[in-house]
Amino acid sequence: MFDSPDPRRAVTGGNVRVCAYCKSPGPLTREEIFPKFLSEKVGYTTFVDQTRDGAVFGPVTVRDVCSQCNGVRLSELDNYVASLYRDYFSKPVDAPVDILFQYNYHLLTRWLLKAFYNSARARRGNGPSRDLFEKNVPYILGERDDPCIPTLVSVGVTTSSVASETEKALGMPSVFHPFVHKFGDLGFCGSRVADAVVLSQFLSINSFSFIFVGFSDVIEAPDRAEITKGLNEVWLSKVAVKRA
Predict the structure, then answer these.
(1) Backbone angles phi, psi at 15, to 5 degrees
(2) Considering the domain boundaries, does residue 208 fall inside one?
(3) Contact assessment for residue 208 and residue 155, using Cβ atoms and an 8 Å cutoff
(4) Counted domains in the chain
(5) Which domain, by its residues, includes 45?
(6) How far apart, in whole angstroms, are the C-alpha atoms of residue 22 and residue 26?
(7) Could you tell me which of 143, 149, 106, 155 has the C-alpha nearest to residue 128?
(8) Number of helices (H) and strands (E), helices first, in the chain?
């Protein structure tokens, strides 16, 4: 549960509204939940904003980030994901999948945590607690080397699908390509996994999807490895990865 009735308000220190990342008093600027470049590249005009109970005509934002964090420190992460968009995410994926996804683990993981933290602050109602995201802010900003909890980042793809004859007769495209950006919360069945996982999120950009799992710090390494193996085995179509 959020500790404020209105999670759109900036993080508060005493009576002063402060930046959600560095805790400076501002001035505070608008931070996009999904980076603006994603909407510009696909030409979206309508976004689903669950915090406003409907569709809005523009990228969803939260106004609680100082200009230094927004324009400099977090921009490094957005610029990195923009390069991944150019090289991978912008291209439809057809079966059979033949992709080598080369990425920098920490830059990608920091960006994913930033995106999930932004989404958590913008929500009204149910959603992941902001506490774990806030504890990871030093990592997001590059001030520490690793996340505050053991993590798993898994990538998979949804391949394009061929339209049926009925769909073609209705004037639909002959091939459907995944063409959406979205967040999601993940839940796991089984007490063993549920007890081991303290944070689980999903994010997709067109054909590519990412699972982010944060494990309890009391879980033993062999158990974490076994759960990781199981999660990877039930994931979407696999891609070969090369981690830097």
Answers:
(1) -100, 10
(2) yes
(3) yes
(4) 1
(5) 12-243
(6) 10
(7) 149
(8) 9, 14
Per residue in 133-152, pLDDT (tens digit) is 999 999 999 999 999 988 88
Q: Which two tokens stand for residue 170?
A: 């209705």
pLDDT tens sequence across 68-119 = 999 999 999 999 999 999 999 988 888 888 889 999 999 999 999 999 999 8
CA angle 111, 91, 113 (to 5 degrees): 10
* 217 Cβ contact partners less than 8 Å away, ≥ 6 residues apart: 149, 150
- For residue 6, being part of any structural domain is answered with no
Q: Is residue 43 part of a domain?
A: yes
Q: Reduce the DSSP state of residue 61 to 3 states and report it.
A: strand
Q: Which of 158, 152, 156, 182 is nearest to 234 (CA)?
A: 156
- The count of residues in the chain is 244
What tokens does 122 get? 């913008």
Which amino acid is present at 165? E
1 within some domain: no
